[in-house]
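In response to the reviewer comment on reproducibility (Comment 2.3), we provide here a single inverse folding case reported in full, input and output, so that an independent group could reproduce the run without further information from us. The structure tokens appear first.
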């Protein structure tokens, strides 16, 4: 039997196929995300962009709490019911979650409308109140949007999630935002562009949901008992709230202790470093339901965990090297020279994200899939507490570099907690010798990349650094024989090109 003929189980096939679909969508979304931000940084000042970031951050924070984490119950319970052949109960879960989140989010939207000026006063930004007024309508919209995406995750039809989240929403948002900014609408253009992208994405997502997922879209005989849904989702709601706060706390602290300009600049740095999550987020939506299906079989869970971790690590390491070393070059070339001051922040955040992703990811999909929602909640408390404490201590003195240090430290500590708890609770861990070889292969790539950054100008670094790092990293993988037979089979499920590349490395 040749390497490419090695058998591969159904779960790994699903992980490879659905993960590659999500990855392609994430790449597309990232491209448009960068185009949007690149246009914004050229058409409005960092101060206006900072106001927009504050407004959308507050709305996301509020919506996460308003939804009580219930969308996460969909891709936990539904896969189990479908696996058992109980379609009616799966449909009841979806219908119940939609009814609850729409009602709760609508009530919270009204509260935001009435309290917007008080919130604006806290941040000493009068224009923030008007932005919150417009964005309050997105609270029930975001609730429906997240349930639809979770339903696509639950049935492992992530191509429809990609169409909705990664293609339709960013394209519509880009067109609407740029059109309005060119017309001179400033902050209003940013907010309306955001709303337009979300609205059209919901329409497309709902259409796909009813047409492509009929097993969940039909009307159930009755609603599900909300108690088990809330018992599972309530800790995750608070965890999700804390995680959203983590993503936004730096902006809030910078807004309080620094300026709107600093918020806008740090937002660009944070977005650049967050590209390290692209491979993790490609696998996470399908990884959680795959774990939930077999959560009582430790051996099967560990096998799926190790496969996912090895692939996430293999693909994330070169990106971490490129961003960690060349962040300043990309900030200057893509977003103009005034954003290059955040180069150190990008490097620090890259280290934090890399370690966190290897240890199980920022939102702990392994622990979620195993049903340890309360443990996930405690981890996010650690995440927020560490980040908040360090941000308050470091931001007044070190500005955006202090914010990055606080976030990176919190990510590292929580990643260590994730991996330690999985081992303590179920004796599961992702570490193998093949994973270690990947890290060894990254060392020469980082050294050569550092030389490129030290001696070449920004524009050349932006082009050459990824090429040099990939060549040296790939050579290290070949020399260390880091590719396994399972990796070849996994790549074959992604596509013939991926199989040829991995097979060549294995040979």
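Designed residues, in position order:
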């Amino acid at each position: 039997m040749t390497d490419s003929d090695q058998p591969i189980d159904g779960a790994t096939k699903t992980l490879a196929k659905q993960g590659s679909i999500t990855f392609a969508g994430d790449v597309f979304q990232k491209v448009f995300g960068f185009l949007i931000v690149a246009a914004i940084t050229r058409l409005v000042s960092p101060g206006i962009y900072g106001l927009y970031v504050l407004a959308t951050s507050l709305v996301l924070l509020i919506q996460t709490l308003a939804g009580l984490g219930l969308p996460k119950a969909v891709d936990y319970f539904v896969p189990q019911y479908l696996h058992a052949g109980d379609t009616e109960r799966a449909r009841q879960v979806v219908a119940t979650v939609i009814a609850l989140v729409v009602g709760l989010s609508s009530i919270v939207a009204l509260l935001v409308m009435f309290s917007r000026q008080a919130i604006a006063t806290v941040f000493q930004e009068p224009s923030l109140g008007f932005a919150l007024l417009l964005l309050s309508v997105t609270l029930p919209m975001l609730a429906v949007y997240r349930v639809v995406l979770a339903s696509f995750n639950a049935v492992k039809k992530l191509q429809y999630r990609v169409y909705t989240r990664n293609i339709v929403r960013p394209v519509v948002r880009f067109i609407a935002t740029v059109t309005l900014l060119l017309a001179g609408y400033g902050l209003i253009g940013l907010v309306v562009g955001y709303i337009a992208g979300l609205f059209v994405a919901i329409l497309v997502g709902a259409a796909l949901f009813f047409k492509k997922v009929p097993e969940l879209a039909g009307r159930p005989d009755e609603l599900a008992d909300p108690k088990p849904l809330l018992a599972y989702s309530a800790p995750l709601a608070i965890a999700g709230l804390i995680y959203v706060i983590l993503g936004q706390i730096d902006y809030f602290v910078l807004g309080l202790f620094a300026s709107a300009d600093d918020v806008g600049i740090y937002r660009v740095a944070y977005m650049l470093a967050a590209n390290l999550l692209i491979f993790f987020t490609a696998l996470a939506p399908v990884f959680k339901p795959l774990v939930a299906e077999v959560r009582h079989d430790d051996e099967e869970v560990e096998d799926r965990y190790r496969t996912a971790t090895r692939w996430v690590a293999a693909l994330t390491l070169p990106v971490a090297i490129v961003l960690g070393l060349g962040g300043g070059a990309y900030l200057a070339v893509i977003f103009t020279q005034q954003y290059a001051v955040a180069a150190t922040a990008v490097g620090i955040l890259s280290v934090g994200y890399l370690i966190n992703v290897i240890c199980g990811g920022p939102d702990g999909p392994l622990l979620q899939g195993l049903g340890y929602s309360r443990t996930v909640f405690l981890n996010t408390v650690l995440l927020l507490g560490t980040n908040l404490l360090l941000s308050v201590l470091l931001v007044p003195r070190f500005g955006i570099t202090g914010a990055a240090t606080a976030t990176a430290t919190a990510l590292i500590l929580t990643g260590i907690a994730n991996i330690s708890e999985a081992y303590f609770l179920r004796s599961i861990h992702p570490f193998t010798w093949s994973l270690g070889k990947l890290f060894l292969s990254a060392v020469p790539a980082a050294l050569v990349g550092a030389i490129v950054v030290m001696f070449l100008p920004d524009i050349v670094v932006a082009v050459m650094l990824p090429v040099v790092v990939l060549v040296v990293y790939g050579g290290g993988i070949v020399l260390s024989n880091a590719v396994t037979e399972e990796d070849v089979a996994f790549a074959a499920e992604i596509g013939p090109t991926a199989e040829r590349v991995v097979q060549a490395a294995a040979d």
